[in-house]
């Protein structure tokens, strides 16, 4: 903290001191110009007395009398050659003209204040008078003011640096803990702190990394669990096929193994897609014809239902915009997952609708199935989570469809929600 304090102090103190000294000098100059005539009149008698004493040099005690006047009035006299005074750059040209004309001229005094000058009789010498006590007072005055400014600035800067340094230490400590593997570490700083935006971004980044790692761990565990079931079934069917002597039974086992392989293929494809979505998919939004996209989604869902031997009516939206601003590839995949999932659980009917809410587009998919319990509506968006208790080939899927839907919606800047359908079943809404 000391190094930070000293750096800021020097950085701030030097300009502040320079500004203060410049201000005081400018003030002296202005005040001198404002009261110039009054000062010249007050200095006149001092010049007259000094000239009278200097002019009476035949008097044996003229020097003693001059020193007595200097001591009494705390002034200092000097007699200088006119040529030396004429070359003094502390005297302005206008004051030099005044001096040569026989008037009282001013000269700036280093350290503040002015010196008074007037030609002596004969014109070859100049009498110099300055009030010593006044300038000692000014020097003391400037010293006190500079000391007070320095002390005040130090106290203000210390009050400002101390919490700033504390917050920087908290941020550094949190970063070190995260580097050591403690992803739960957060930088605790006040809302009014100067480093609060940095700490907020750091905390948000850490929280995102922590969620991402937890998601990856959950995904890894889910993959291990989900792969184990079809692999075990595949091994079981393979052993039965080897041991069976009946050709029809062996053919049935081969068909079962084909379905297990198809399940594995679906699972791997869904896992690859979800992993891609959770990292950085090649997201490229553009204007996509809305009706073409929706019709393609419905066609693919109907083809799957026909292949499964189910009769479900899938109704297209009655009204929709001409275009969707989206990534057509990923949004179509998400809508297919939603419509396919709705058709699997519907009794006879699935309906799609599109509406605008504020600046967002929302697609609703309703079914007349059993619906999803309120306590499960958030949970089913997690990988490998299903609302139904068992996994059946007809309705179970691989448990990644809604997880992909949520990831696609979030990459589009929106979200996915589950509610109650007007048809009596579940309503899945995708917004972006």
Q: What does this protein look like?
A:
The chain is α+β, with helices and mostly antiparallel strands and about 425 residues long. It folds into three domains: about 1-140, 2-Layer Sandwich (Beta-Lactamase); about 215-280; about 285-430, Heat Shock Protein 90, CATH 3.30.565. Helix content is about 60%, strand content about 15%. It has a five-stranded mixed β-sheet. The chain has a four-stranded antiparallel β-sheet with strand order 1-4-3-2. Strands 5-7 form a two-stranded antiparallel ribbon. A hairpin with a 2-residue loop joins strand 8 (about 350-355) and strand 9. The longest helix is centred in the middle third of the chain and has 48 residues, at about 130-180. The chain is rod-shaped and about 155 Å long.
Descriptive key words:
single chain, 432 residues, alpha+beta, Beta-Lactamase, Heat Shock Protein 90, 3 domains, five-stranded mixed sheet, four-stranded antiparallel sheet, rod-shaped
State the gist of this model.
The chain has 432 residues and is of the alpha+beta class. It has 11 helices and 11 strands.
- Helix/strand structural class: alpha+beta
N-to-C SSE string, H for helix and E for strand: HHHEHHEEEHHHEHEEHEEHEE
Gross morphology is rod-shaped
Please identify the top-level CATH class of the largest domain. Answer: Alpha Beta
User: For this structure, what is the CATH homologous superfamily of the largest domain?
Assistant: Histidine kinase-like ATPase, C-terminal domain
What is the number of strand segments? 11
Annotated CATH topology of the largest domain: Heat Shock Protein 90
Strand order of the largest sheet: 6-8-9-11-10
Helix content: 55-70%
Structural Rg? 46 Å
**Low-confidence stretches at least 5 residues in length (pLDDT < 50)?**
389-396
């Amino acid at each position: 903290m000391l190094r930070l304090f000293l750096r800021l102090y020097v950085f701030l103190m030097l300009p502040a001191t320079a500004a203060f000294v410049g201000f005081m000098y400018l003030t002296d100059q202005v005040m001198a110009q404002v009261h110039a005539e009054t000062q010249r009149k007050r200095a006149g008698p001092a010049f007259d007395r000094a000239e009278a004493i200097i002019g009476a040099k035949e008097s044996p005690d003229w020097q003693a009398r001059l020193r007595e006047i200097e001591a009494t009035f705390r002034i200092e006299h000097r007699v200088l050659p006119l040529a030396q005074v004429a070359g003094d750059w502390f005297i302005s040209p206008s004051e030099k003209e005044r001096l040569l004309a026989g008037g009282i001229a001013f000269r700036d005094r280093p350290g503040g204040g002015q010196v008074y000058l007037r030609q002596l009789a004969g014109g070859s010498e100049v009498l110099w008078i300055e009030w010593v006590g006044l300038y000692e007072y000014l020097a003391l005055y400037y010293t006190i003011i500079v000391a007070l400014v320095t002390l005040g600035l130090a106290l203000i800067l210390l009050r400002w640096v101390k919490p700033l340094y504390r917050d920087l230490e908290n941020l550094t400590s949190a970063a070190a803990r995260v580097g050591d593997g403690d992803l739960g570490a957060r930088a605790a700083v006040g809302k009014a702190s100067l480093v609060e935006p940095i700490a907020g971004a750091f905390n948000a980044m850490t929280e995102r990394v922590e969620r991402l790692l937890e998601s990856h761990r959950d995904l890894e565990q889910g993959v291990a669990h989900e792969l184990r079931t079809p692999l075990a079934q595949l091994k079981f069917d393979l052993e039965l096929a080897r041991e069976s002597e009946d050709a029809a039974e062996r053919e049935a086992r081969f068909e079962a193994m084909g379905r297990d392989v198809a399940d594995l293929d679906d699972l791997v494809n869904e896992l690859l897609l979800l992993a891609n979505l959770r990292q950085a998919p090649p997201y490229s939004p553009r204007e996509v014809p809305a009706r073409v996209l929706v019709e393609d989604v419905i066609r693919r869902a109907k083809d799957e239902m026909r292949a499964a031997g189910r009769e479900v009516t899938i109704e297209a939206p009655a009204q929709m915009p001409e275009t969707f601003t989206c990534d057509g590839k990923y949004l179509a995949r998400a809508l297919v997952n939603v419509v396919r999932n709705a058709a699997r659980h519907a009794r006879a009917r699935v309906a799609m609708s599109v509406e605008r809410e504020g600046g967002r587009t929302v697609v609703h998919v309703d079914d007349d199935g059993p619906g999803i319990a309120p306590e499960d509506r958030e949970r089913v968006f997690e990988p490998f989570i299903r609302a139904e208790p068992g996994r059946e080939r007809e309705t179970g899927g691989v448990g990644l469809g809604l997880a992909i839907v949520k990831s696609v919606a979030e990459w589009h800047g929106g979200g996915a929600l589950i509610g109650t359908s007007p048809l009596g079943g579940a309503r899945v809404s995708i917004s972006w």
